[in-house]
């Protein structure tokens, strides 16, 4: 994509608008780099067409061309221009971010999806969700967070060369999720570095078999199988060393009746899976036993976000 971006007077007239993108949690235990779910925690981007690109609502350090929203906007804009579609132009965007950075809740995917969605909207939505998925997954380097952010619900995805594929999975409404967010981050490069270069075949089989069964059990509403299938041997035993309190939190939360506690993405957030239709009442986030731990943890009950990012006129908000 080396084509120079040129101004044009033929672009559609667009009123100010807001793009809303959900948080995402990848892996869901054994589904390493392939399973993901969209959750009801949001980044909002208030966009106004302008002569020059400008970002507000973030520290000046993050408001330049390296900003992930900006990169995705320009990458999508290039694709649009290459197809002979009028240049959507530039914009001023104000960030309102609920998704914490560096906590394994898809903050980078939300920026990529937000920027791509904004450019596509300004051009009259010529690109399909699949095409936006390809752009964002290429920028992100892996599709497991981008897929649920764009398609909503629970997804399975993979890459084959330069192609990316995703499928939305059924998810029974009985399942409920709580994010346990600590006051520390895990650097993605560090979380990758702790993974082994080689994996014993029994460990690979352990996780792969559970990931396949888990994806069906979530749809079938089989809480017993979901609980049994949430464990992993590919990444959690290694990444868990970077997350203080993990073993203690797991013991406490499982004692409250949770089906499982998984590492959200590369961490540091933990994702709790509950059975809202089970015999035990699901405790509210504020009542979870998170005191007396090494780190300070904040619990948030998060509904599953269905559908893709929202685009709304700013005048209606």
From TrEMBL:
Belongs to the GHMP kinase family. Homoserine kinase subfamily. It comes from the Bacteria. ATP binds at residues 100-110. This is Homoserine kinase. It comes from Boudabousia liubingyangii. Keywords: Amino-acid biosynthesis, ATP-binding, Cytoplasm, Kinase, Nucleotide-binding, Threonine biosynthesis, Transferase. Catalyzes the ATP-dependent phosphorylation of L-homoserine to L-homoserine phosphate. GO terms for molecular function: ATP binding; homoserine kinase activity. It is an enzyme of class 2 (transferase). Its main location: cytoplasm. Residues 217-273 form the GHMP kinase C-terminal domain. NCBIfam families: thrB (TIGR00191). Pathway: Amino-acid biosynthesis; L-threonine biosynthesis; L-threonine from L-aspartate: step 4/5. SUPFAM superfamilies: GHMP Kinase, C-terminal domain, Ribosomal protein S5 domain 2-like. It catalyses: L-homoserine + ATP = O-phospho-L-homoserine + ADP + H(+). PANTHER family: HOMOSERINE KINASE (PTHR20861:SF1), HOMOSERINE/4-DIPHOSPHOCYTIDYL-2-C-METHYL-D-ERYTHRITOL KINASE (PTHR20861). One of its GO terms (biological process) is threonine biosynthetic process. It is found in: Cytoplasm. Its EC number is 2.7.1.39. InterPro entries: GHMP_kinase_C_dom, GHMP_kinase_C_sf, GHMP_kinase_N_dom, GHMP_knse_ATP-bd_CS, Homoserine_kinase, Ribosomal_Su5_D2-typ_SF, Ribsml_uS5_D2-typ_fold_subgr. Residues 67-153 form the GHMP kinase N-terminal domain. Gene3D superfamilies: 3.30.230.10, GHMP kinase, C-terminal domain (3.30.70.890). One of its GO terms (cellular component) is cytoplasm.
């Amino acid at each position: 994509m080396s084509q120079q971006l040129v101004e044009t007077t033929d672009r559609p007239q667009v009123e100010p608008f807001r793009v809303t993108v959900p948080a995402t949690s990848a892996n869901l235990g054994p589904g390493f780099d392939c399973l993901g779910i969209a959750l009801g925690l949001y980044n909002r981007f208030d966009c106004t067409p302008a002569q020059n690109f400008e970002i507000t609502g973030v520290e000046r350090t993050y408001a330049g061309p390296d900003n992930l929203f900006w990169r995705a906007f320009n990458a999508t804009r290039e694709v649009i221009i290459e197809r002979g579609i009028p240049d959507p132009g530039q914009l001023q965007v104000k960030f309102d971010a609920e998704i914490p950075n560096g906590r394994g809740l898809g903050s980078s995917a939300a920026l990529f999806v937000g920027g791509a969605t904004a450019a596509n909207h300004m051009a009259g939505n010529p690109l399909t969700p699949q095409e936006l998925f390809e752009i964002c997954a290429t920028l992100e380097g892996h599709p497991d967070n981008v897929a649920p952010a764009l398609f909503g619900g629970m997804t399975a995805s993979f890459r084959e060369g330069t192609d990316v594929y995703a499928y939305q999975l059924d998810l029974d409404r009985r399942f409920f999720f709580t994010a346990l967010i600590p006051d520390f981050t895990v650097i993605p490069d560090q979380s990758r570095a702790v993974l082994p270069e080689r994996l014993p075949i029994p460990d690979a089989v352990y996780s792969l078999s559970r990931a396949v069964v888990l994806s069906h059990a979530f749809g079938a509403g089989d809480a017993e199988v979901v609980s049994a299938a949430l464990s992993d041997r590919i990444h959690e035993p290694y990444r868990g060393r970077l997350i203080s309190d993990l073993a203690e939190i797991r013991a406490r939360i499982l004692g409250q009746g949770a089906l499982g506690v998984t590492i959200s993405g590369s961490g540091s957030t933990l994702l709790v899976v509950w059975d809202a239709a089970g015999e035990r009442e699901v405790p509210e986030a504020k009542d979870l036993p998170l005191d007396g731990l090494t780190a300070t943890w904040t619990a948030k009950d998060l509904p599953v976000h269905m559908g893709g990012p929202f685009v709304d006129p700013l005048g209606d908000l």
